[in-house]
Amino acid sequence: MKILKVVVSVAYAVVLIMLFASLLTSNAYMRLSKGLYASHDDIDYDHDYVAGQLIDYLNYRHDDLLFGADANDNTVLMRDIEIRHMVDVRDVYTMLRLIALGCFVFVVGVSVMLYRKNKTAFYDMFKNIFWVPLGFFIFVGTWFLIDFGRIFTWFHLLFFSNDDWILRSDDVLIRLLPSNFWLVSGSIILLGTVVMLALTVILNERFIKPQIKKNTLN
């Protein structure tokens, strides 16, 4: 049972991380981020158009990365290395989404089974679901603050098999999505996941624990 609790807590955290990652890979978030970073002052293309093209590509709304600086530009804005990297990014993003979907099915399946058969076991599992992910997030969050550049590099070395992610400072992707963009986005994902884990524990205490007490008294 202890191993199951750990597996469920990790799987649940993966689901939440990808949920928030999906919210941040949206046109709304890109619009909110517009102008927040120094590199945005150097953008000489239509920010909203290009950001929309990239977000729509990530979310499978189209497969075209040969867009120009605006809707009326027929030239190709990004260099070949940027285009190749975006293809790799969507492949990795798709893989992570599929993993999160599998984790979601697993967590829901285990939760339904335990809730029907043993509410006490269900309660115990979610009562402790916070601690394993929290320890990981404290470690990663501290690393974020101390040496974000290194963790950013290690992330790319882990998920990408080439050096296409090493871009120039004047490239489209770097100006639009500078390192501070990823620092802020990563922090939002970590914070949002921790809040949702805490909310899960609170709801477990609020609704499931009283049911167990009631059943015990009966």
Provide structural commentary:
With 218 residues, this protein is an all-alpha fold. It has one domain (2-217). Helices cover 74% and strands 0% of the residues. The protein is built from eight helices and no strands. It has helices at residues 2-24, 27-33, 47-58, 80-117, 119-127, 131-159, 172-176, 179-217. Helix 4 (80-117) packs antiparallel against helix 5. It is elongated.
Features of the shown structure:
single chain; 218 residues; mainly alpha; 0% strand; elongated
Element layout with pairings:
Layout (H helix, E strand, L loop, with lengths): L1 H23 L2 H7 L13 H12 L21 H38 L1 H9 L3 H29 L12 H5 L2 H39 L1
Oligomer: single chain
Strand content: under 5%
Quick check: average pLDDT?
A: 93
Instruction: Give the overall shape, derived from the CA principal axes.
Output: elongated
Specify the helix fraction band.
over 70%
Number of domains: 1
Q: Count up the helices.
A: 8
How many DSSP E strands?
A: 0
Secondary-structure element sequence?
HHHHHHHH
Low-confidence stretches: none
Distance between the termini: 26 Å
Largest sheet: none
Radius of gyration: 21 Å
Estimated structural class = mainly alpha
